Amino acid sequence: SQQGEEDPQALSIQEGENATMNCSYKTSINNLQWYRQNSGRGLVHLILIRSNEREKHSGRLRVTLDTSKKSSSLLITASRAADTASYFCATIQGAQKLVFGQGTRLTINP
Amino acid sequence: DSGVTQTPKHLITATGQRVTLRCSPRSGDLSVYWYQQSLDQGLQFLIQYYNGEERAKGNILERFSAQQFPDLHSELNLSSLELGDSALYFCASSVDAGSSSGNTIYFGEGSWLTVV
Questions:
Q1: In this complex, do A94 and B56 lie within 8 Å of one another by their Cβ atoms?
Q2: Segment B66-107, tens digit of pLDDT
Q3: What's the pLDDT tens digit per position in A21-79?
Q4: Are A42 and B90 a contacting pair at CB < 8 A?
Q5: CB B43 to CB A96 under 8 A?
Q6: What residues in A contact B88, CB-CB < 8 Å?
Q7: Chain B hits for A34, Cβ within 8 Å
Q8: Do residues B107 and B91 touch, judged by C-beta distance below 8 A?
Q9: How far apart are CA A109 and CA A98, in angstroms?
Q10: Do A20 and A74 touch, CB atoms closer than 8 A?
Q11: Cβ contacts (< 8 Å) between B55 and chain A: which residues?
């Protein structure tokens, strides 16, 4: 079963704009991780946010976590063409396995 | 570069055949995970090993098997291949077994398997 569900499924914006992607999950978590995948390539780890954290920054990335709503958001500021990719949230389900949502396909238009 | 190495990068084989995918985890990581990514199923967890022992099992078919060796590298064996097994297979690794709050899981570039 899918633990993380990303929203929207696809997002297209102009270069320089901010992109926000949301993720909802079903069970309690220890952490939530965001990954980026360029077409047909590997998954690149972006950021990990622990369940006791509410917000985390990494460069142009800002991740928030609301455990009461079982949701997280990923904000990419000042988007660039190179940010075009699919973005996935993932949570640990059970003791070990990382469960992914279907991802958000982000397209940055020049 | 995540530090997780997978070989081969691409593989084309016929139905009914058997293939082995290989993974070297990041230096110091004891856990290895295998995932399958296909267009219709998304990213599916297959199996996890921790320090040589099977730790968790997901949607892994009986035709598939894996193991982790004493040097911590892992192999995923896929047999009696079917057209539907065509997918991108990822290996990932982490330091611990996965339940800690700070456990980051790093992925390799994947092995593209095409069954014809």
A1: yes
A2: 999 999 999 999 999 999 999 999 999 998 866 666 778 899
A3: 999 998 888 889 999 999 878 899 999 999 999 999 999 999 999 999 999 999 999 99
A4: yes
A5: no
A6: 40
A7: none
A8: yes
A9: 32
A10: yes
A11: 95-96
